[in-house]
Amino acid sequence: MSRIGLKPIPVPEGVKVTIKGNEVTVEGGKGKLVRSFHPDMLITLEGGTLKVSRPSDNRNHRALHGLTRALLANMVEGVTKGFEKVLELTGVGYRAQKVDSKLSLQVGFSHSVDFEPLPGVDIVVEGTNRIRVIGIDKELVGETAARIRAIRPADAYKGKGIRYAGERLRLKHGKAGKAALKG
Predict the structure, then answer these.
(1) Residues 76 and 92 in one domain
(2) What's 49's domain CATH number?
(3) Disulfide engineering: 66 pairs with which of 2, 38, 97, 179, CB 3.0-4.6 Å?
(4) Is there a domain that residue 180 lies in?
């Protein structure tokens, strides 16, 4: 029994939900999101709450039940509050700056790396070493943040690179055994 799929999704004031077959449109103060869901999932809007139900207890239907509910909840949250991921640059000379709509990163390469964000995602640079990725679609925000991080992931020895805010790194010790052998 899916615990996630059974929870109803409250629709806040000012959010308009339109259901046409298996396509759901959610409009709110921050924007509009449209998504198609599996045709077996039944999505209903009853008195300000969205409910998802499945036709059987088939393994695939149980999996789709929770997934559909989670995606709908993310759509409603996205058009009301929005989503954001924060990235931090750590290292001497590492910096980020916004040039037009592109992000220009200097992260230890001989050249600067220009990054074009996905459509529907905004990038805000705070200072020289903090990047905020903001948008209404949770998938796009996460994908953009992951692509920025993949340009120069944090190093395991010195911790230099791009990491998520609050991400904890386990630093390796390095070559400690060489000094112990000289005896």
Answers:
(1) no
(2) 3.90.930.12
(3) 2
(4) no
**Domain endpoint, select from 49, 80, 111:** 80
Locate 69 and state its tokens. 């509910």
Nearest to 11 by CA among 60, 44, 38: 44
Task: Name the nearest CA neighbour of 87 among 125, 116, 113.
Answer: 125
Assess contact for 59 and 65: CB atoms under 8 A: no
Residue with tokens 């200097």: 106
Domain that holds residue 129: 83-164
Q: Does some domain include residue 177? A: no
Residues 74 and 134 both lie in one domain: no
Q: What is the pTM of this model?
A: 0.87
pLDDT by 10s per residue, the chain, length 183: 568 888 999 999 999 999 998 899 999 999 999 999 999 999 999 988 999 999 999 899 999 999 999 999 999 999 999 999 999 999 999 999 999 889 999 999 999 999 999 999 999 999 999 999 999 999 999 999 999 999 999 999 998 999 999 989 899 888 875 555 555
What is the H or E stretch that residue 132 is in? strand 130-135
Phi and psi (nearest 5°) for 153?
Answer: -60, 155
In the DSSP assignment, the letter for residue 125 is E
Report the number of distinct structural domains present in the chain. 2
**Dist. CA 100–CA 114, nearest whole Å:** 11
